[in-house]
Amino acid sequence: MLIRRHDSLLLVVDIQEKLAPAIDGSEWVIANSVRLLEAARQLGVPAFVSEQYVRGLGPSLETIRAAALTARFFEKTHFSCAAEPGVLEQLRAASRPQAILTGTEAHVCVLQTAFGLHDAGFEVFVVADAVASRHPDNRSAALERLRGGGIGIVTTEMVLFEWLHQAGTDEFRALLPLLK
Description:
Blueprint: E1 8-13, H1 26-43, E2 47-52, H2 54-57, H3 62-67, E3 72-76, H4 87-93, E4 98-104, H5 106-119, E5 123-132, H6 136-148, E6 152-154, H7 156-164, H8 170-179
Parallel strand pairs: 1-2, 1-4, 2-3, 4-5, 5-6
Helix pairs in contact: 1-7, 1-8, 5-6
């Protein structure tokens, strides 16, 4: 199953000020989430950003906020975005059956969101090089469980190249800096 630009939305889960420093490999999670947010903006893919319990974990990192210029933000207290009142309605309103997920923590909010969206009828893809947890074993276990549960495990470049679909276009040239 390929990811199709006109059928997908991007959901960045809980990359927040007080949580990010504790995440193993947070640098690449942030960098790849930023790449996907920038590509989504340029290609017209709807983007959403969740923030778990902002009072305790702070807002999204400034780099995420800066890249998410056209994204819709929402605060949540449920671990799963799909369980938070009103969020499924927001995502469904985008009329995109595929959900691409990045963020933290892989074994908690990303995993529960992925399964919740899957149960709600979305085709869900988790971006392996854009999700992490405080402990690498938790990330590994989450990816294994997600894969076994029918969730697509992809990489940032898979998403970017599948969104682009072909080389030699103006869109490809515009996104080339994100592909290097």
